[in-house]
Design goal:
It is a single chain. By secondary structure, the protein is mostly helical. It has one domain. It is 93% helix and 0% strand. The protein is built from two helices and no strands. The protein is rod-shaped, with a radius of gyration of 60 Å.
Length: 151
């Protein structure tokens, strides 16, 4: 007769052999061990960190350039503000001059109104006088006409 075999042990042994065969096939297929994959992951992480440091260095360089440019920009802005303030002061002075000029023009207008009022009074007086003069002339003509007719 044959040998007695424990089926559980036989099954476990055959599963281990299959697993070992599959692992060997995968190693042959993919060609890398766990240690090699871990080393590759570490290299990838280091490369990623190096890229991040490079990017951070570039960003710091850009920020430094921006900071170095700030004094010049501040100076330009101060000059622009000073020029604007100077223009504003000139405009204010011009407005003051226009106000003074407007005031003198108003005063001249008031004087002209007073002169026009005087001229109106004179013209009114002249009209009245000329009306009386014409009336007197007509009366004299009538008197002369009547005297010539009576003779």
């Amino acid at each position: 007769m044959g040998e007695l075999v424990n089926l559980k042990r036989f099954k476990k042994r055959s599963e281990r052999e299959q697993s070992a065969n599959k692992a060997e096939a995968n190693r042959a297929r993919f060609g890398r061990s766990k240690a090699e994959r871990a080393a590759d992951e570490q290299r990838a992480l280091l490369n990623q960190m190096a890229e991040a440091q490079k990017w951070a260095g570039e960003q710091l360089w850009h920020v430094k350039e921006g900071i170095d440019a700030l004094p010049g920009q501040i100076s330009e802005l101060k000059d622009a503000i000073a020029a604007r303030d100077e223009d504003l002061q000139k405009m204010r002075d011009e407005v003051k001059g226009l106000y003074v000029e407007t005031s003198s023009l108003r005063q001249q207008l008031e004087e002209l109104k007073a002169d026009i009022g005087g001229v109106n009074a004179n013209v009114s007086g002249f009209r009245t006088f000329s009306g009386f003069f014409i009336a007197v002339m007509i009366l004299l003509l009538a008197v002369i006409f009547i005297m010539t007719i009576r003779r």
